[in-house]
Amino acid sequence: MSNTVSTGLSGITAGTSSICAVEVGRELMYRGYDIIELAENSTFEEVAYLLVYGELPNAQQLSTYQRDLQQQRELPLSLKKLLELIPAYAHPMDVLRTGVSFLGNLEPELRPNDIYAVATRLLAAMPGILLYWHHFHRRAIIHTQTDEPSMAGHFLSLLHQNKKIDELQRRAIDVSLILYAEHEYNASTFAARVCTSTLSDCYSAIIAAIGTLRGPLHGGANEAAMALLSQFNSPAQAVERLKELLAQKEKIMGFGHRVYKTHDPRSPIIQQWSKKLAQECGDMVLYPVSEAVEKLMWDEKKLFPNLDFYSASAYHFCGIPTSLFTPIFVMSRTTGWMAHIIEQRDNNKLIRPLAEYTGPPYRQYLSLDARSK
Predict the structure, then answer these.
(1) Which of 257, 264, 283, 340 is labelled catalytic?
(2) Domain with CATH 1.10.580.10 in the chain
(3) Which residue has the higher pLDDT, 245 or 262?
(4) 221-317: what CATH class?
(5) Is-contact 69 120, C-beta < 8 A?
(6) Closest by Cα among 20, 69, 53, 64 to 331
(7) Distance from CA of residue 75 to its chain's centroid?
């Protein structure tokens, strides 16, 4: 039995990985590439290929990968029928969890190399699973295939039926998908690796990850941030109310991070896009309120915004319903999850930590009659 206990495994190195590094100086790297450079120069499809296959694609590889993703977008009729049966009041994360599970029944992983095909299929199908259900309960039956070459454009096209996609919005969503794609041994990724370590199939591991991200301490902070920000009509009102919440010891979602101690390197990137989108749509409230909240949280608590905080306003400016914010996280992070599933299988050992027992000491067993006296 170990003499050292770390609640929540805080500070514990639970394994090795070549996929993602969170380091001082180069705070976040995907397979050796700085997240800032990837967000500035790459598309999400390039980054997804990098995570799953280990290298950035050349032009031919990227073209083939994009074609494969486009061809895999259509959903089976039986899956659509299932999505129609899921009630309108269901949580969108539960819709994705159920959709992935059913797809795993229809298209099971049968051979070891199937995992790469499953990775492509899941990434391609996620927007359709979510938005077929979303539109069905708004009295619309949609086709889950579009001509959009990018996942960002495909998602926006499915969401905003019959509307021309704004180029700034398309690129903003593309960048956000890059930023959310991977983040080392976070809770959902670790859950996927634990599941994989039992030699379970990759659909089960993805479902474990979705279920873990469903919890508000891991996913959902962007939704909570939006719910907070939407209450205020001005920066002054936001500051006044936030001071009251802090005095009441309320937790303000979208600030601080379990790993980063001084700043989240992804936050300034999405903040820039939020600002551009605010300027484009003529916003005079939400973005200034966000800046005021950021300043107050630093002045009062020395807490910095994480990726989720400015993602909230960026998604809002793109016309995305708040309830769909965390599912976008899933659509992106599926690439990182699949990369970790592949890596876990390549050098697998069952993940089985110990626990320090804190229950009562040995007690003599009593028969049922003796317990009744």
Answers:
(1) 257
(2) 17-216+327-346
(3) 245
(4) mainly alpha
(5) yes
(6) 69
(7) 22
Among 154, 308, 316, 340, the active-site one is: 308
Tokens describing residue 98: 């159920």
The predicted model scores a pTM of: 0.93
**CATH classification number, 17-216+327-346, choose in 1.10.630.10, 3.30.43.10, 1.10.580.10, 3.40.30.10:** 1.10.580.10
Phi, psi of 164 (to 5 degrees): -70, 135
Phi-psi region of 25 (alpha: psi -120 to 50; beta: other; left: phi over 0): left
Query: Helix, strand, or coil here: 21?
Result: strand
Indicate whether 9 pLDDT > 80: no
* Residue whose structure tokens are 């001071």: 243
218 classed as catalytic: yes
Residue ranges matching CATH 1.10.230.10 in the chain: 221-317
pLDDT tens-digit series, residues 152-183: 999 999 999 978 999 999 999 999 999 999 99
Percent of the chain with pLDDT over 90: 84
Which H or E element spans position 210?
helix 202-213
What is the model's pLDDT at position 84?
97
- Asked about 160 being catalytic, the answer comes back as no
Active-site residue, from 91, 135, 160, 218:
218
Category of 266 on φ-ψ map: left (φ > 0), alpha (ψ -120 to 50) or beta: alpha
